[in-house]
């Protein structure tokens, strides 16, 4: 049994010592929520001026009683940790700044660090050292914030410091200390799972993952008649792993968010229809209703397996990013930046590929890269073209239909399905036509950059007789060290050069047109360069740039340009561009056939 008590924040902190358990999400409030928190305090202070008897209610808390450390009750915060962390951070910031506050010693004892009890409010383990040192000022040093959530704690401290006037601290802290809160102190974890929806209107809306977590915990509580505490503890550990994976993913570029991962997972886990894969709680509810007739233990077992598999999904995605250098085929997809469509297939293939070096997963990445570059990069199909089929593939993969003869949806089937997609929508003809387009630079800029980046690495592998060089990393496009070093496109014949108005023909029987309309923006007249190097060349003529485009260039694709110039003209002209265009098209057709 537990107690639900309408009390004040001050009484709550006087009577309890708090810990945020590791299965909870780390601190997540950002400027929007912090601004709302301050505005709410200011509004309440104004209301108190008009009506001093009007109470300030900050919401409902759910606390799990863990024991006693006299004179306090030890509790884990199950619901309300974002609000409580913010309140403690707010008060600690005032004390850290040396603001004159009435009853400061008592506040220090009850909210920050008690002489006998130590730290009164602990955040999740990965952030607590930073929190106690840099926010609570318990330790005499500044601790580096090594996680995004710790950085958000430091940001909250600094935000309060910058946005609260000196004369506001005292009345705001007094208002918080006397604010009313409805605190449910639950003695066992199983009972706590029955309260699975936050009342958090002033904070961040619950994510789908958090809603699903609460719903699944509740389902286990209702159906587990023996040892439910142990089952729930196991689930908590799984979600602790999930939340830590989510936080670590924030350190990597172009990662899916937590709710997207949940939807991607469900798209391959359930036999859904329509857009139900976007409604994970609905899918789970339908599944549980469908198996309830088989008994409560069946429900508990299914939930346990689902949560375990879900944890593995989040961990697998984190592993892919942490070991991305092992999977250049995947890093190519990161550069192309169309991963949202492909994640359901990628998640399932990575999980089910048992080969030591993930051969099947890497081949799937390559086939998706071929489709992505051809369909979206060069053919300019709409952004969601093929999405329904990709979702169907993810759902079918590794299942056996009951029809006769059986249809085996294994890796070979998957490879064929993905390869076939690159022939849909008349893609071969559309790709061939667009690669020859006179406005390729303007119409397909990102595809051009990707093709030339891959071509540079093709040369660096020694494929045209050059010495082997280290490849250009995917990071040089996605996360360059600075803006100046970011890879960009350079026109070899300058956009405003003397060639621009010269009348030329691309084919012998074509009507002559200005060079700028025929060849200036062709793929063959483009080369990769850094933004800083590109700027230094400006719009000089090719002959003026020659020293920077010599064989000793940093980029082999620049150094080989002289080989495309005709011996007769010894100039970079339409003939040179046609020669290079032909070479690049051969490379494209060989690499993404």
Write up this protein:
With 593 residues, this protein is an alpha/beta fold. It has 3 domains: 2-192, no CATH class; 208-398, no CATH class; 436-591, no CATH class. Helix content is 54%, strand content 10%. It has 27 helices and 12 strands. The protein has helices at residues 9-15, 31-50, 81-96, 104-112, 125-135, 148-163, 166-178, 189-192, 208-223, 228-249, 258-269, 280-291, 296-322, 328-336, 339-352, 359-378, 387-396, 411-421, 427-435, 440-443, 445-460, 475-478, 515-518, 531-537, 542-545, 556-559, 574-591; strands at 2-8, 16-19, 57-69, 72-79, 113-114, 118-119, 121-122, 180-186, 487-491, 503-504, 513-514, 526-530.
Strand order, largest beta sheet: 1-8-3-4-2-7
Distance between the termini: 67 Å
Give the tally of β-strands. 12
Mean pLDDT: 88
The DSSP helix count reads 27
Class from secondary-structure proportions: alpha/beta
Percent in helix = 40-55%
Biggest sheet, in brief?
6 strands, mixed
Global morphology:
globular
Subunit arrangement of the protein = single chain
Rg is 31 Å
Low-confidence stretches: 196-202
Number of domains: 3
The percent range for strand residues is: 5-15%
